[in-house]
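Section 5: illustrative case.
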């Protein structure tokens, strides 16, 4: 069997595990990400937490658990776990086992999404993803679509720099890069322009500023100067397991004036339709393609080589164990 995904494991970083609407206060939601059975729950105060899916006591699945105040309660023996995963109470009213600790994952929630930090060695986050303007700042809330794909976060994020496919796959009138890529640790920035045809005679140009915050979070700031339109697009790729992701795409539009909310929602619907159309064109290619580790690049491809060098920092490289020589009797 051909292995199409030649990546050294799941890259570490921030990933979306749900939209805020998917889990209400007091609810426990079983989810699967990073090759693990997990539970996402929201405490009575409204805080969202992600934890390992199995109770460390005797292995019951916590998808059937209950939220009790700020704790998660296992229904098998009544053990309760706090937000940090530590057992705080048993149903027996006796001393809590000191080693009873439920694995917990760093989480953040903003812009209508719940994000979790993944690191194969359990290291804590060393960067944050941006909080974007919302309705309070004159932007619409994000309109979101989610789909499962046979792919990998590095593949879907690569679209941000793959300039060559915009004309060939999406049928744009032209596409070009604007300046060089900027790489600052976990953050990659790039810019490009696209010419959109409207019928046979009318064309307009959209400028795109891309921010890749690790391989699970790509922000695209779109500006259509001719019409005074500003759009924020999100491409959120979350690994479920090897060769399988949940891809969320989202769009938000800045209002053109204090009384033009209805127009902003129309523009958001148009942006969402366009984004979903493009992802629909990309998805069959992502699912069928094979990752070429050493591609033969051509002028016009875009800075794919630079992007791939940037990606290497998010993988934990396994170090080879020293060879043990056989013991020979003297």
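Designed sequence:
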């Amino acid at each position: 069997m051909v292995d199409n995904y030649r990546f050294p494991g799941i890259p570490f970083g921030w990933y979306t595990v749900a939209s805020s609407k998917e889990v209400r206060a007091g609810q426990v939601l079983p989810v699967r990400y990073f090759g693990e059975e997990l539970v996402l729950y929201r405490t009575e105060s409204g805080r969202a937490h992600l934890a390992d899916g199995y109770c460390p006591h005797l292995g019951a699945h916590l998808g059937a658990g209950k939220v009790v105040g700020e704790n998660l309660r296992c229904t098998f023996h009544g053990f309760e776990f706090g937000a940090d995963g530590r057992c705080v109470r048993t149903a027996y009213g006796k001393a809590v086992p000191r080693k009873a600790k439920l694995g917990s994952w760093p989480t953040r929630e903003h812009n209508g999404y719940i994000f979790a930090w993944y690191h194969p060695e359990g290291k804590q986050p060393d960067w944050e993803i941006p909080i974007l303007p919302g309705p309070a700042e004159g932007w619409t809330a994000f309109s979101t679509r989610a789909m499962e794909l046979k792919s990998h976060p590095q593949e879907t994020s690569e679209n941000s720099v793959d300039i060559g496919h915009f004309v060939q796959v999406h049928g744009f009138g032209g596409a070009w890069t604007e300046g060089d890529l900027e790489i600052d640790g976990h953050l990659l920035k790039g810019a490009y322009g696209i010419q959109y045809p409207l019928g046979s005679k009318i064309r307009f140009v959209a400028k795109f500023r891309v921010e890749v915050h690790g391989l699970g979070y790509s922000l695209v700031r779109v500006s259509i100067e001719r019409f005074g339109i500003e759009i924020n697009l999100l491409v959120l790729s979350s690994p479920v397991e090897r060769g399988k992701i949940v891809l969320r795409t989202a769009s938000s539009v800045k209002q053109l004036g204090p009384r033009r909310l209805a127009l902003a929602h129309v523009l958001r619907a148009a942006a969402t339709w366009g984004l979903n159309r493009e992802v629909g064109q990309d998805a069959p290619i992502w699912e069928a393609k094979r990752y070429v580790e050493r591609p033969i690049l051509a002028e016009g491809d875009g800075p794919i080589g630079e992007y791939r060098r940037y990606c290497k920092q998010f993988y934990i490289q396994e170090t080879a164990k020293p060879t043990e020589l056989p013991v020979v009797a003297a």
